[in-house]
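This protein record is not my work; I was only asked to verify it. Take the sequence as given and treat only the tokens as open to question. I have pasted the whole thing underneath without changing anything:
***
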Amino acid sequence: MRTHAFSSLPFSVRALAVVTALGMAGALAPAAWSQPAAAAPATTAKAAAPAAKDGSPDMVVVEEDVLLFTPVQGTEFLNGGVGKEERAKMRQAAASWPLRLSFSERHDDELVAGVGLKVFNQRGDAVLRLKDAGPLTYAKVPQGNYRITARFKGGTLTRTVHVGPKGSDVAFHWRG
């Protein structure tokens, strides 16, 4: 995986850079009244930031759809399974991967790719983000609880899973 210089900066410096960039984007954007109305507002999620020195947690509002799908350092993953041969090879290697995800749609369970995938640990830290996951995605993650969000053709599914000693198989299925 590539190492980006930005990710090696302290959190406070990265946060300041993001806030500055967002502020500049707002100053350069056309006035809201000159734009057509949006069909639906973006969803936001509140994530607790590390506690401040006085012990009170700072709340940060994150627009999840605005987040870039950047690689998460330290998480190994295997993504593929488009053809029968590739799918068979991945299934042979599945036991080596604690978190095993599959993505399908319709009544015939046709496997699909092109899934936006986000995996968060129990602290809320992203451990995997992929813009084009599937049909099978495996990840090497430590045992614990995870929240997984998968988006396909405008539909979003979320699962909370526990990865134990034998791993966890998680299926996402969209009705089509």
About this structure: The chain has two helices and eleven strands.
